[in-house]
Design goal:
This protein is α/β, with parallel strands linked by helices. It has helices at about 1-15, 20-35, 70-75, 95-110, 130-145, 165-185, and strands spanning about 40-45, 50, 80-85, 90, 90-95, 115-120, 130, 160. It has six helices and eight strands. Strands 1-6 form a two-stranded parallel sheet. A two-stranded parallel sheet has the order 2-5. The longest helix is centred in the last third of the chain and has 24 residues, at about 165-185. It starts with a helix and ends in an 11-residue tail after the last helix.
Length: about 200
């Protein structure tokens, strides 16, 4: 029962939404529309938020949400293979663009003369589309030119692989096997270092 029961009930609850994230966002927007119809309300829907373009400096990010986790792990040389279609277009937008957009929308909403619910999209795909692999290639070029100070391995490459079997083989040789070898070496008496395993 357990997890399968929860997953089945979750599917019934979110009815047609791809995941609970999109479902709860929709719930929040519907609640705002219902309860705030007589005010000046603006909803901003950013696409995948990535590090900043300029402010406070290029590449700045404070957390690992959205694209931050992939950016960090690929940039420090840990993530080399991603199970994903390399040609699929992803919609990213720099954090400072979103912040500036929020300020601009707030000013615009404050000068509106009539109550209205406005929905804005902060995205870039129509003007500047990018694929998964293009994003990873740009990230690798940046990481080689500006290495992270806590780099684990030199970021040689990071590739998106659509075929699950090819991805598993690549992941085994690029990530799993070296990790197992390092763990085995760390456990060797006299020359190993148990702290490396922990």
């Amino acid at each position: 029962m357990g997890i399968e029961y929860v997953k089945e009930n979750e599917k019934k609850l979110i009815r047609g939404y791809p995941n609970t994230y999109t479902f709860t966002k929709s719930m929040a927007e519907r609640m705002i529309k219902k309860r705030c119809s007589d005010g000046k309300v603006s909803i901003i829907r950013p696409s995948i938020v990535i590090g900043t373009y300029e402010e406070p400096f290029p590449g700045w990010a404070e957390n690992l949400a959205a694209g931050g986790g992939i950016t960090l792990t690929a940039g420090i040389g840990i993530l080399r293979n991603i199970k994903s279609d390399p040609n699929i277009k992803i919609d990213t937008v720099p954090c400072d663009y979103v912040a500036n957009f929020i300020i601009a929308v707030s000013v615009y909403a404050s000068i509106m003369t009539t109550p209205r619910l406005s929905i804005y999209h902060a995205s870039s795909s129509l003007l500047n589309p990018i694929s998964n692999q293009q994003y990873l290639d740009i990230l690798m070029a940046w990481a080689k030119k500006n290495p992270f100070y806590k780099q684990v391995f030199e970021p040689k490459r990071s590739i998106a692989i659509k075929n699950v079997h090819v991805w598993k083989v690549s992941k085994f040789f690029d990530e799993d096997l070296p990790t197992k070898a390092l763990q085995t070496f760390a456990k060797l008496p006299l020359i190993g270092n148990k702290a490396m395993v922990e």
